[in-house]
Every structure is written in C-alpha cells, then in structure tokens.
Amino acid sequence: MQPINRRSLLAGATATAVALAEGDGRAQALAAAGGSDVYELRTYRLVHGSMKERLDAYLQDAFIPAARRAGCGPVGVFTVVIGPGSPSVHVLVTHPTIVHFASLPSQLAADPSYAMAAKQFTDANPEAPSYAALDVKLMQAFPHFPRVQVPDTRKDKDRIFELRTYFSHSDKAGATKIGMFDTGGEIELFRRHGLTPVFFAQDLTGARLPSLTYLLNFPNVETRDRNWGAFGADPAWRQLIGTPGLTDPEITTGIENQILRPTSYSQI
Description:
Elements: H1 6-21, H2 26-32, E1 38-45, H3 51-69, E2 75-82, E3 88-95, H4 98-109, H5 112-122, E4 133-141, E5 160-167, H6 171-182, H7 186-192, E6 196-203, E7 211-218, H8 221-233, H9 235-241, H10 248-251, E8 254-262
Antiparallel strand pairs: 1-3, 1-4, 2-3, 2-8, 4-6, 5-7, 5-8, 6-7
Helix pairs in contact: 1-6, 3-5
C-alpha cells in the first residue's frame, strides 16, 4: 500500500475545516440533502440489580422492533465494561434525518404493538424504576462516512467495541480534527491497521462541544491492543500528527474512551 501523502492529509483536513467552521455550508448542505445519517445515542444509567434485565426485555421485544417499523436503521445495544459510566447501556439508533429523530416518539406512541410490549417498562413505578437516568446525544455522520457500517464479526463471541469522543477548544479546531478523519486519510490509516470503524460523527449536542465521536469494532481485546500499537507506530501516522496545524495540542483538549460489549440482540 502506498504511504499517506502528508500534503493531501493537511489539504483534506483544511478543506473540511473550512466547510464546517467558516460558513460556506458545503458539508451542511450535503447532510441536508440526505447524504448523512443522524445518530441518536441513548445512555441508560442503571444500578445493579434487576434494571438490566428489564431494560434488555424492553429493548429486544418492544423498542427495537418498533423503531425498525418506524423507519430507523440498525439499532446497536452495548454494555459498558471499561470506562466511565458503568453500569450503563448505550443504545445507538440510526435515523435518516433529524426530522425522523424528532418524530420517533409520536410514531412509537401510535404503535399499539409497541404499547403492549413496552407496558411493563414504561409503566414502572417510582419505587422500582426502569432506569436511574437517561442521557441522549445527537450526532451527524461525517459527509464521507455517511452510514453505519455493520461489522462482519457478529459471530465472534469475544468481540468488543470501542467508543471514543474527541473534544476541541473551538469550532475551527474541531472541524480540523473532523477533516483529518473525513477527507484527510486518517480513516484509511485506521483500516490499514485493523481499527475497523462502525461510524464517525460530529456531535450536535453534548456538554463539551465541539466534539466528535466514533465507534470501532474488534474481534477481541487482544486484537484491539495489538492493532492500536501498530497504528501508533506507523510512520505515516507519526508524520501526520507532527504536521503544524494538526498536532493534538493545537486541535484537541481531551479524549473519552469506553470499551463496550454488544448484547446478544444488538443489530450492530
């Protein structure tokens, strides 16, 4: 495979930064035209006990079937095993548009099959709640990575996912980091070293904007550790992150990282 060209990386990152941060609207127009999916990441905060079993039953028997009937794409369900937030469950819901995201509650309310299947979960009383808290983050898929890519490792019993969020100090810095991935070649470097992406997205809501979030898939923890090591040692990657304007201190202020395991009924 040919090495990544540093100039093309910088040019790609800069072009996307201009589109996202300086107002020419090219990336936004692509999204508005239906070029990129919208992701809803629900995080159910739990306490140890029966909450997880009730949540699993609700998601598998009520929510996922109804969401698919309503036009959502694949729904992924993941338990946090390493990182902040445990015990909690992430539910990744794929929407074709923001309008579809906004209309989903009313579509569920009008679905009699959903109402019947969800009754035990939705009618829980305060003494035995279905969850401790619910957080929702909305994301827009990158223009050049517009759809969830369902991994081909669904039969691997030890498979894991890695959810990472990068934070930046300004819209321009955040857009530059998005550009490194979306048009600058960083995703190609990921694939080269077995960091298999499921989605890349710009966060539209959240406590520490601007930020971006992505999800990777691995057959097991050992492969994850080995592949990250190979990626970090790649001369093309070392050259990229040493490029003025693309270094971590210039465009990122922190990273959050979680290791997840899919549930048996997850569609991703």
